[in-house]
Amino acid sequence: MNKQNSANGLALTSAYLFIMICQLMIPHYFRNGPAYLICTFIWLLGALAMIFLNRRFSFKNPVDSTEKCTQATHEAILIGLGLIATLAAQILLTTFEVNVLHQPSGSENTNMFIEIIHQHPYYFLCPVIAAPITEELVFRKFLFGNFSSVLPKLICALISSTVFSIGHSDGHFIVYAAIGLILCYVYEKSGKIRTSMIVHMLMNLTVMLINL
């Protein structure tokens, strides 16, 4: 792995871990204060910072070095298909997990976001805007795209999706892993990390609106 690759990955991962630590610690110390307002501000600012770091420590990996969606219509079609695929995967695989693996039907992560949003509506920006940006830059850009310079893409996609699933700690391992694989596919087919970001945003938006 070359220096540019390492610098890009270190910058993105460090920023992401800082954001996640803040999300865990701030509500603990500001239980009766503006905890979620601070969390929202940090997550949104962190997402912008990660976009800046990705440009500052730029590295063209094997995925984004050849942009395949050269026209807006092609990218729009890929976004639409990606959104349908992620939502279908959630429905089908959740049904499998509930009926076969006897997992609870609800998502702890989604329920947590919904509970917070009911009390603090502005927090809606975190799962719909901030989380997709930060997660795509770490799990897809770094773990999938950058590592594709030293490992086969399929192996990188499996690693990225597994870590993505474990990171959500939701119990629905298969569902999150499948979503991760679909987002890797969208990124690979477009050659643009923004495409998987948009699919991720639209997916989270749909899920939030349905649950709200």
Outline the structure in words.
The protein is mostly helical. The chain has 8 helices and no strands. The mean pLDDT is 91.
SSE blueprint and pairings:
Elements: H1 3-29, H2 35-56, H3 72-99, H4 108-119, H5 125-145, H6 153-168, H7 173-190, H8 193-211
Helix pairs in contact: 1-2, 1-5, 2-5, 3-7, 3-8, 5-6, 5-7, 5-8, 6-7, 7-8
List the defining traits of the structure above.
0% strand; 212 residues; mainly alpha
Distance between the termini: 44 Å
Helix content percent band? over 70%
Number of strands: 0
Extract low-pLDDT stretches.
none
Largest sheet: none
Helices and strands, in order, run as HHHHHHHH
Number of helices: 8
Shape: globular
- Range of strand content: under 5%
Estimate the mean pLDDT confidence. Answer: 91
- How large, in whole angstroms, is the Cα Rg? 17 Å
Computed structural class = mainly alpha
Give a summary of the structure in a few sentences.
The chain is mainly α. The protein is 77% helix and 0% strand.
